[in-house]
Design goal:
Layout (H helix, E strand, L loop, with lengths): L13 H6 L1 E7 L6 E8 H24 L3 H4 L3 H39 L8 H9 L12 H12 L2 H9 L2 H4 L10 E4 L9 E5 L5 E3 L4 E9 L3 E8 L3 E11 L6 E2 L4 E5 L11 E7 L2 E3 L8
Antiparallel strand pairs: 1-2, 3-4, 4-11, 5-10, 6-7, 6-9, 7-8, 8-10, 8-11, 11-12
Helix pairs in contact: 5-7
């Protein structure tokens, strides 16, 4: 009986199927001329397909989380709303802080206009609060002589010197122009309610700005006549009273040394041509002679 083994073809394994080389030929339809050819194996085709699928998957995932998130991500609307709520809350907090600052600024401004120093803190108390350690109740008592000495010191002018040297050290480092050159006829004295200095100068003498700032107030008042106030950095305000004429308007930025008014004798609280000059810091009056040379 004849054997059939010669007619059987060898079986192809998976590795043979993957590594078998094939060639893809592209020909012209009219003359069958070969245009291009591409050699490939199934393993290369599978590998290329996997890589292409992975790239498409990653790109689609990124798009779904970014540009196309509002269509494909159901949580996108909630996330965006939460972001807006956080931003609104931050803006609200910032506005609240700014409103508090504006209210404090307006309060200080009103105190400057009225010359109110009811909230003016005694320099000696500030110095004691910053440097003295806390003691337990009953642990330390001052002798009567020490208490009397402290009261006398708090009433003296030495407390003002201590305040200027510590509390307003940053202002001492700033250079102030002299608003006018003349004779100081009345000095700064909180006890008498005189919160500035009076400088007698020549008639029609120009008044200059002491430091860079913005005109905060420029108008007529019954007591002080023509008054101009300038807001400087660091919550510092300079005040110029009894002018004959104002040369700047509210909101104008003025440089240090720039002419802002003409010295005069306007207002009811005056007894001759002079400039009444004040410095206010955080709502508290300062002695101008400690910062400005006239």
């Amino acid at each position: 009986m004849p054997s059939k083994s010669g007619n059987l073809k060898p079986k192809k394994t998976l590795s043979n199927w993957l590594t078998s080389r094939y060639q893809l030929i592209i020909r012209n339809e009219e003359n069958f001329a070969e245009k291009t050819s591409l050699a490939f194996t199934y393993s290369k085709v599978i590998l290329f397909s996997v890589i292409l699928f992975s790239v498409i998957f990653v790109v689609s995932l990124l798009l779904s989380r970014t540009l196309l998130a509002k269509w494909f991500d159901p949580r996108h609307a909630q996330i965006e709303m939460n972001k807006q709520l956080v931003e609104l809350r931050e803006q609200f907090d910032s506005l609240a802080v700014e409103v508090d600052r504006k209210d404090q600024f307006i309060l200080n401004f009103q105190r400057v206009l009225s010359g109110d120093t009811s909230d003016f803190k005694d320099p000696a108390e500030i110095m004691q609060g910053e440097t003295r350690p806390l003691a337990k109740a009953g642990e330390m008592k001052l002798a009567p002589a020490d208490s009397q000495f402290r009261k006398e010191f708090e009433k003296s002018d030495l407390s003002l010197i201590a305040l200027t040297s510590v509390k307003y050290r940053e202002l001492q480092e700033t250079f102030f122009f002299s608003p006018i050159t003349g004779f100081v006829s009345d000095h700064f004295d909180i006890k008498k309610g005189h919160y500035g200095v009076d400088i007698v100068a020549k008639t029609n003498e120009a008044v200059k700005n002491v430091a860079d700032g913005t005109i905060l107030f420029a108008s007529w008042t019954q007591d002080a006549g023509y008054v101009i106030m300038i807001q400087h950095r660091g919550n510092l305000i300079s005040v110029y009273k009894h002018n004959a004429e104002l040369l700047k308007k509210v909101g104008t930025f003025v440089n240090a040394g720039e002419i802002i008014s003409i010295v005069g004798n306007s207002g009811e609280m005056t007894d001759g041509p002079h400039l009444h000059f004040e410095l206010w810091y955080n709502g508290n009056p300062l002695n101008p002679e400690e910062f400005v040379t006239f």
